[in-house]
């Protein structure tokens, strides 16, 4: 997968907002990896801010919807992982400022 396509996918994922924090999943540092095979099957490896997140299904649906407009993406698989464990250190400067974290 070329860098432009990866940037397109990350840009689309910035439209997916964590409902609890109101910040997108990219700036929160929840997206760990993007992989695409030759047929366009795209695997998004990501985590959630909390293991018991009741909105996991909503976020997965939003990820799939966000990538639906990218022609190279034929199928989306969202792989939720808990390692490494998410922490505030993974957030972008933007997300920390928006949430008032120093």
Keywords:
3 strands, alpha+beta, 18% strand, GMP Synthetase, Chain A, domain 3
Radius of gyration: 13 Å
Number of beta-strand segments? 3
N-to-C series of helices and strands:
HEEHEH
Order of neighbouring strands in the sheet with most strands: 1-2-3
Tally the helices: 3
Structural class: alpha+beta
Helix content: 25-40%
User: What is the CATH H-level superfamily?
Assistant: Fe-S cluster assembly (FSCA)
Write down the domain tally: 1
Provide a short characterization of the protein structure.
This protein is of the alpha+beta class and 102 residues long. The chain has helices spanning 3-13, 56-67, 93-98; strands at residues 31-36, 41-46, 75-80.
How would you sum up this structure, described in words?
- The protein has a single domain, classed as GMP Synthetase, Chain A, domain 3 (2-Layer Sandwich), CATH 3.30.300.
- It is built from 3 helices and 3 strands.
- The longest helix has 12 residues, at 56-67.
- By secondary structure, it is of the alpha+beta class.
- The mean pLDDT is 94.
- A 3-stranded mixed beta sheet has the order 1-2-3, covered by helices on one side.
- Helices cover 28% and strands 18% of the residues.
- Keywords: Methyltransferase, Transferase.
Helices and strands in order:
Blueprint: H1 3-13, E1 31-36, E2 41-46, H2 56-67, E3 75-80, H3 93-98
Parallel strand pairs: 2-3
Antiparallel strand pairs: 1-2
